[in-house]
Write a structure and sequence with these properties.
CATH architecture of the largest domain: 2-Layer Sandwich
Distance between the termini: 14 Å
CATH class of the largest domain: Alpha Beta
Bound molecules: zinc ion
Strand content: 25-35%
Largest sheet: 6 strands, mixed
Order of helices and strands: EEEEEEEEHEHEEEEEEHEHEEHEH
Shape: globular
Structural class: alpha+beta
CATH topology of the largest domain: lpxc deacetylase, domain 1
Radius of gyration: 18 Å
């Protein structure tokens, strides 16, 4: 079965990198549409499918790009759509970057749960594996193993910060995603905040909801769970795996990875859609 949202919903707020205001609306779409973005601020904006073929850059966040149409930071919305099993929808927005909102996927989850979802006729293609598929770069990697259900396991290592080394592992169901991963907020280190500010990025008080790790303490917010940063990485991974364009049934294990490796794996896995 495929699913779409039962009704449209709209959310708005400042974006993380540019600090501009963005309003986005998620609307139901017919079976086999997939998830696609439309820039309503551009006169010519053909639908931009949320699939790995259209990833332009993975620096700091994922950027989807087709000609002059760009959509930055789609990963938290895409994670919520995958986590709550919304296969088809049209996402219109009036900026080139999605709002950061609460720094996690909770606002999206709340809206999707409020409007509900409807089943659609037509089989949903999926990705199942017969052997492992992996991508790596030095000691960083993401690997997908054959498994009977979707499970994400993630490890991070930030020596010299309060985060240290963490591992987390979750079978992804709508209930587990909503309770355990969706509330996990984006994070950074104090050193990185200073670097990015110097480059003119992360403007607009948009780190209000982020966790900021110093050497031996958290600056501002305290984490909901000791492994909240690691859970957020699993959330980002799920959002980037949405770019396969079909549900994945596999155990994905990642260590010190990021959008670059997440997207590379999504690209590799597109060939197994059936
Ligand atoms: Zn994120």
């Amino acid at each position: 079965m495929q699913h779409t949202t039962a009704l449209p919903f709209t959310l708005a707020g400042p974006t993380l990198h540019s600090g501009k205001w963005c309003e986005l609306t998620v609307q139901p779409a017919p079976a086999h549409t997939g998830r696609q973005f439309i820039r309503r601020d551009l006169t010519l904006s053909p639908p931009l499918p949320a699939v790995a073929d259209w990833v332009g850059s993975t620096q700091l966040s994922t950027l989807l790009e087709q000609g002059a149409v760009q959509v930055r930071t789609p990963e938290h919305l895409l994670a919520a759509l995958v986590g709550l099993e919304i296969d088809n929808c049209e996402i219109t927005l009036d900026q080139g970057e999605l709002p950061i909102l609460d720094g996690c996927a909770l606002s999206y989850v709340a809206q999707i749960q409020r409007v509900g979802r409807v089943a659609q006729a037509g089989d949903q293609p999926v990705v199942r594996l017969l052997e492992p598929v992996s991508v790596w770069d030095g000691d960083r990697f993401v690997a997908a193993f054959p498994a009977p259900e979707l499970r994400l396991s993630y490890g991070i290592d930030f020596p010299g910060t309060v985060m240290g080394r963490q591992w987390t592992s979750w079978v992804i169901t709508p209930a587990i995603f909503s309770q355990e991963l969706a509330p996990a907020r984006t994070f950074t280190t104090l050193a990185q905040v200073e670097q990015l500010r110097a480059r003119g990025l992360i403007q607009g008080g948009s780190l209000d909801s982020a966790l900021v790790a110093a050497e031996d303490h958290w600056v501002g917010h305290l984490p909901h769970w000791p492994d909240e940063p690691c859970r957020h990485k699993a959330l980002d991974l799920l959002g980037d795996l949405a770019l396969i364009g079909a549900p994945l049934v596999a155990h994905v294990v990642a260590f010190k990875a990021g959008h670059d490796l997440h997207v590379k794996l999504a690209q590799c896995l597109r060939q197994f859609i059936q």
